Amino acid sequence: MKGVPPDMLLLMTGSGIGSVDENFIYNQLGYDKKFIKDANYAAQEDRHLFSLIPTLLQPKSVGDIRLRTSDPLDYPLIDPRYYENEQDVKTMVSGIRLAIKISETKAFKSIGAKMNPNNWNVPGCTQYGKGDKYLECVARSISTTLYHATGTCKMGASTDPSAVVDPQLRVRGVEGLRVVDASIMPEIIAGGPHAPVIMIAEKAADMIRGAKN
Ligand SMILES: Cc1cc2nc3c(=O)[nH]c(=O)nc-3n(C[C@H](O)[C@H](O)[C@H](O)COP(=O)(O)OP(=O)(O)OC[C@H]3O[C@@H](n4cnc5c(N)ncnc54)[C@H](O)[C@@H]3O)c2cc1C
User: Which family does it belong to (predicted)?
Assistant: First the structure.
């Protein structure tokens, strides 16, 4: 629909869980060898694998980041609260269904591509058959991050009590300090944050050059 940003990204990668080159992406995403073994993904390792990774572009669930201690060098406590909002689960299940549908198109069939049958073996979910309950269980069991965290230091108007920085990116209540990075986005954007972060930085450079404070 015109003007409505997408809520789902299908990220295509030239590897799959169980690929010999699994180190490329799946280790980065934190899947352990036990999961790969238990779902028998290694059975496909002599094949060419690719993935369609359904990704929530507008998650409704909001996590938080808190200080663990007063030591600034200590790692903070991060709670992403994945799937706290049920709508996110529904969107993810429809994204998985879409990826399956794409794998069954003529174009994919013509190159001999088919969905990895091991996708139906995810440990802890097999009792749900092949319906939405299974896909929901898979989503809750093996979802991971694309490292697109944003919004922990929100920009907003002075009337917004949840805003940390003002529209010039100055930290409210602190003299001479700005925050210029992905954290100032008031809401997560429906796409990769890299280019928008560069735009934020360019805009901030212009504001700082033109600013008196
Ligand atoms: C593996 C991975 C893949 C990604 N892929 C994509 C992608 O394909 N497309 C996309 O759009 N986005 C992608 N992202 C997200 C994107 O990289 C981030 O959203 C973006 O880099 C955030 O920019 P930033 O300036 O907010 O933070 P960063 O890029 O993290 O910059 C923070 C900087 O601060 C420095 N720093 C930290 N602490 C201190 C300190 N105490 N003193 C001085 N300097 C400090 C760090 O060294 C770093 O240079 C990916 C992220 C990851 C991790």
Answer: Belongs to the GMC oxidoreductase family.
The whole model's pTM is what?
0.88
Q: Quickly list H helices, the chain.
A: 33-38, 86-103, 106-110, 132-142, 194-210
Q: Which amino acid, residue 150? A: T
Round to whole Å and give the CA distance between 75 and 171. Answer: 22
Atom 21 of ligand 1: nearest residue by CA position = 194
192 lines ligand 1 (CB under 6 A): yes
Spatial separation of the C-alpha atoms in residues 200 and 213, rounded to whole Å: 18
Q: Which residues are catalytic?
A: 148
Say if CB 98 and CB 54 are below 8 A apart: yes
